[in-house]
Predict the structure.
Amino acid sequence: MPKISIVVPCYNEQAALPLFYQEITRVAGEMDYAEFEFVFIDDGSKDDTLPMLRRLAVKDKRVRFVSLSRNFGKEAGMLAGLEAATGDFVATMDADLQDPPALLPALYKAVTEEGYDCAATRRTTREGEPPVRSFFAHMFYKLINRISDADIVDGARDYRLMRRAMVDAILSMREYNRFSKGIFGWVGFKTKWVPFVNVERVAGETKWSFWKLFLYSLEGIIAFSTAPLALASVLGVLICLIAFVFVVVVLVKTLALGDPVGGWPSMMCVVLFLGGAQLLCIGISGQYLAKTYLEAKRRPVYLVRETEEGVR
Ligand code: UDP
Ligand code: MG
């Protein structure tokens, strides 16, 4: 029988976890044509998540877990899960039931019968989300698709089912700064997009503030595009052209018209603008340098403290 691994990153999910487990086992029960393995990642939770996982693993042999030594973030958790998963097919989904397990049979059908390597989900509405956040999200997707070669779909969730080949491709990307949406797009493979209507989390709270999301989007841009680095050159050329026109204007005014060019305010504008533009460009280079620095250290993306087999 083919084996499906379900990878679930969990950070302080004690409220949602029992509901999730109930729902996923129900769906797994319906899909009796496949074998299941549930790989939960405890991403350094401070609540009852880990004891709960321990109990589940004792009760249900399909349940496995990997507990990280501290909170490493969802991206690290997903990597830990993909590395631990042993299935022929691997699905990633959130623990808060915002990724409905009920879609699994349809996703599975797409990869086994319809010739896709991956079936991914996309939410069609952003209901229940502040409008400002939706606006910036749309802007982000437009921008990143223009400046990067990873195909990143607006509204895509991290809920997807992949064939082993695609999972191995993702695992072969050893980068430290992991922006999953970009990585999924970058590896390619034939992906079927399954739309569904957005659902709110069943219990507990979201871990994402607007500011965190904003910083995360910058990470995504830095990880998957070098276009911002070209900004300095583009600005430089533009300013040189403007300066050249300015020189001609000043020369003509002084020599031909004998008009002494007054200019303290205009000078200040030019100095401030140039100073600002230069700092901006150095700042952008700095961001890339910082990421390069972190990559160069080759630190592990996550550290494991405990699994269902015991404490390491
Ligand atoms: N998560 C995680 N580590 C973190 C933050 C979140 O493993 O540092 C998990 C969380 O438990 C959930 C999923 O990532 O299963 C999505 O998180 P959340 O629901 O807070 O994000 P949202 O759905 O609001 O984007
Ligand atoms: Mg959620």
